From TrEMBL:
The lineage of its organism: Bacteria, environmental samples. It comes from uncultured marine bacterium Ant24C4. Residues 1-23 form the signal peptide. It comes from the Bacteria. InterPro entries: YHYH_dom (IPR025924). This is Lipoprotein, putative. Residues 93-284 form the YHYH domain. Keywords: Lipoprotein, Signal.
Amino acid sequence: MRIPMKITLIGSLCLGIGCAAIAQRPPMREHTATEAQPIVPVAATERAGTNVVAFSKTATARTMFANGIPDHLVGAFPNPGNPNTISEQQVNLQVPLSPTRAQSLTSAQGWVFGVSVKGVVFDPFAAEFWQGNPRSGWNYDALGGAVPLGVDANYAHVQPQGTYHYHGVPFGLLALLRYDASKHSPLVGYAADGYPIYALTGILDGQLTQVASSYVLKSGARPGGDAPTGDYDGAFVQDYEYVAEFGDLDTCNGAFTQSAEYPNGTYAYFLTPEFPFVPRCFTGTPDAGFKHGF
């Protein structure tokens, strides 16, 4: 009998690298929606600008410089679900060249999870909470649809300070990288702890695998009272729980894989079309430069 292994996931309060001070952010919106809704992504038909990205490395670290502008088409921003405009950012990040597993997992709450090979960040948590209260313990999932957030076909949208960032699988980026479902995923990016990020397919135990998350919706209904009511349907991050070995991936949506970049094998994270979409915790130790700033 499998016993579900659960992990508590709470959204970050400040999105982006080097966030503006709290006083410069718009007030937190109050929401009472309790039902997940289908996401209808905004078609990616526009160019955001010119992509600038550069990677370098030393004996111990990999450094990324970028302007945060994607090299693929994006949706129209602002749009009805997102009032913000994409603008250039100063992305200057460093990760370990040879990451190692930490003794315990680190929640990605309060962190940028990683950065793509084109310099756009992965930032899975939304700054939207039940009744506008982060202390409620109920964080709306960005792709749950209960609160429309105007994501485009790359499951991305824009933060108030102009940062375009991914909440799910960036299909425009995969097309640029010539993703082929019959092969191991191309390298998509690096997590804050230095481990590589791939998407959808990997070679696990010597077999090409369409990787599946091990997160499932909880059964039953939310508690109500000071918490939301309704069935666990994916509106909130807390509607999900991790069930060991239900899918192919671990608590942090990772697995050991063999890829072109790591022919001898490496631990890696995977983006998946189902929750958590982008991993919500780190197996290694994230670099402090990825921490959201207040």
